[in-house]
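explain this chain.
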Amino acid sequence: MRLLYLSPVPWLSFSQRPHKFVEWFHGRTGDEVLWVDPYPTRFPSLSDLRRLGAKEDRHQCSNPPWLRVIRPPALPIEPLLGSGWVNALLWQRLFCELDAFDNQHGTLLAIGKPSALALAMVSRFRGGASLYDAMDDFPAFYAGLSSLAMRRREKQLVRRVCTVLASSTAIQQRWSTLRGDVRLVHNGLDLNVLPPPKTIDSTRTQKVFGYLGTIASWFDWEWVIQLAKARPLDEVRLIGPVFSPVPLPMPQNIKMLPACNHQAALVAMQDFDVGLIPFKKNELTASVDPIKYYEYRALGLPVISTDFGEMALRFNEEGAFISAGIEDINCLVLKAFEFRPDTNQVLKFAASNSWSIRFDRAGIL
C-alpha cells in the first residue's frame, strides 16, 4: 500500500507529527510516499511578512529515496466560494500525477489539513482508503471569512473520509458529534533523537525554569512574569521565535534566547530544572496536546503548565503540575522541586509515548 499525504506543513520544515506519520508508514510497509506540501487556505495577512524572515529548521537536506514531494500551485483565494473551481484549473497536472501515483497499487489517502484540494482528492479516491488526522483546531487560527470557510470544509472532510484521528480529547469530542468512530491518537516522541534523561544536580542553587517553543498570541506573559517575580533568584529561560509583543519592562531574571533546531533544542532542555508550558486558556489552545510535554517528561523534567487543552486533563499524572492561575505558582514550584523520577520511570514513559506506539495502536494498517 502506498501513501498519498496532503500535509499541513512543508516537508522542509522542522520535524512534526506529519513527518513522523509518513516515516512510521514507510517503516511499517516499506512502500512509497507522495507528500503534497500545503498551499494558502486563507487570505494573506501582514503577519505573514514577519514569518517570511523566520529561520526554518529543515527536516533534512535531501528527500529519502522512498519519498517524493510536490508543491501545488494555487491562488490565495480559498475562502471565496468557487475558489476550488478556480484553483482546480491550476491543478490539472497535479491531478494527473496523483492519479498516476495511485494507479491500482492500493493507496492510502491521508489528509493533515482541510482544503479544497483535500476534498477534491477524497472525491477522486472514492471507494479507496482515506483518513483525516485532525491535529489542530484549524478554524481557530483564522479569522472572518477564512475561519468560516475552513470550518465548512473541515466538516465536509470529516463526513467523507473513512477514518478520523484526533490529536486531543477536545478534537475527538468535537467530531464525535458527527460520527462515533473518531480515534484519539495523542502526540508523541521520536525515541531516536532523544538525549539521555537529565541527571538532577541537587547542588545547583539557581534553578532554571525553561520554555522552548514559539512565543505568540497564546503565550501567557502574565503567568510567566508572575513566576519570575515569585522566584527572583532563579532564571526563567525562554527559547524560540517571537511573534507577539513582549511586555516591557520585564523582570531581569527572564532570559530570552533565539530559536534553534530540534536537536539543539533537546540539548538545551537538559539544562532546565523545570519545563514550562505557559499557554493562555482560550479557543486556540483548547484543542492542543503539546509535544513539548512529552519531551520534557522523557528528559526527566517536572512540568509546570497552565490548565489549557489536554494539559487540563493531567492533574493526576506523575511529574505534571497544573496551574489554575497565578495564585498557585509558589505551591507548584515546591512540588516540582520535590519530583525525583528514577531513570527506569523516565525510560518507560518515553517508550510508552513514542510515535510508533501511537500510530500502531490507531489501527490504520
Remarks:
- Residues 144 and 293 are 32 Å apart (CA to CA).
- The chain has two domains: 2-185, 208-351.
- Residues 208-351 form a domain with the Rossmann fold fold (CATH 3.40.50.2000).
- The chain has a mean pLDDT of 92.
